[in-house]
Amino acid sequence: MKPVNGISHRAFHGTNCLVTGGCGFIGSNLTRALLYSDARVTVIDNLSTGRLEHLPSSHPNLTILQADLNLIEGLESLAAKADYVFHLAAQVGNIKSLEETDSDARTNVLGAVRLYRACRNSAIRKLVYASSSAIFGEAETIPIREDHPQRPASFYALSKQTAEQYALLAQTLWGVPAVCTRFFNVYGMPMEKSEYSGVINIFMERLAEGRPLTIYGDGHQIRDFVYVKDIVQALLLAAEKAAPGSTFNIGSGRSCSIRELAEIVREIAGTHSEIRYEAFRAGEVKRSAADIGHAQEQLGYQPKYGLSDGLQEIWASTKTARTAV
User: Fold this and answer.
1) Catalytic annotation, pick one of 84, 116, 129, 156
2) Could you give all domains of the chain from N- to C-terminal order, each with its CATH number?
3) Mind listing the pLDDT tens digit for each residue in 100-138?
4) What angle is formed at CA 263 by the lines to CA 260 and CA 264, rounded to 5 degrees?
């Protein structure tokens, strides 16, 4: 394991960290970074999407609890032992939330509330909640600042907004030192393979299989694609430096259209695969890009990875994985 972006994060040396969703895409990257920093990490993950192989399960400082956050026993005692709590467990996906609304609310809202309540009488230094840029809905202005109006356009976005509001009120009413980090479009390894994977993962899989790329809409919708190692940097900085009750937009600070993304991944893959267009999907916004000035000023957050750098790493891993099969 290597330090994140060259930052050692000595602040976490010898600390106890609780990570929900720690076997997932972002959570496993965060967990490995914490272990590199010599933290003792307890992961809670129901493995609905996370994978045990994403983590070094034999690491002496790692404990993995396969459990649902709504059902796990002894959550208060786990919080009582923690110096830092990172809440990343979630059912992810705007489209998925339209189909599985009950489980979306149960996981994203009730699970979060149960965790916050468990932290109520603890002595944790910081609770960092992984929120989402989806809470803003369709952007009025680009780039999006923290004070941009919030108009969720899907049940997933609403559930993330609700859990964020619970976190901020838990800070005010219960004294839980909560901080919210709003992620824009995160990509990187390990790739998630599901119907609801991000557009980059889907594009890479389709190119590896020699299939055409599908764009929903006209391709002019824009996104802020941020590499997962930069997200981990932001999470660690938020835990170390952020004032309780604060919120931060976390992205790359750069925007890219879906059409441009398709052209970039085709170039990296060295292919001229067909690009097909289908109708816009309900629950998806057309413009999303982060103003990261607040995180830069307050946390010292600086994205280190350009889009092409991250995409080349993913494509190399995709080809290697397919060759090994």
Assistant:
1) 156
2) 12-184+227-251+289-304 (3.40.50.720)
3) 788 888 999 999 999 999 999 899 999 999 999 999 999
4) 85
Q: How far apart are CA 21 and CA 54, in angstroms?
A: 12
Instruction: Yes or no: say if 184 and 288 are a contact pair by the CB < 8 Å rule.
Output: yes
At which residue do the structure tokens 């803003």 appear?
136
φ/ψ of 204, rounded to 5, equals -65, -45
Peptide bond just before 190 cis, omega within 30 deg: yes
Is the separation of the CB atoms in 30 and 8 below 8 Å? no
Residues forming a β-bridge with 304: none
Bond from prior residue into 143 cis (ω within 30 degrees of 0): yes
Judged against a pLDDT cut of 50, whether residue 325 lies above it is answered with no
Q: Which residues contact 42 (CB under 8 A, 6 or more apart)?
A: 16, 17, 18, 19, 63, 64, 65, 78, 81, 82
Verify whether residue 156 is a known catalytic residue. yes
Helix or strand holding residue 45 (H, E): strand 40-45
What does the buried/exposed string (b/e) look like for 32-67 if buried means 16 or more CB atoms within 10 Å of the residue's CB? bbbbebebbbbbbbbeebbeeebbeeeeebbebeeb
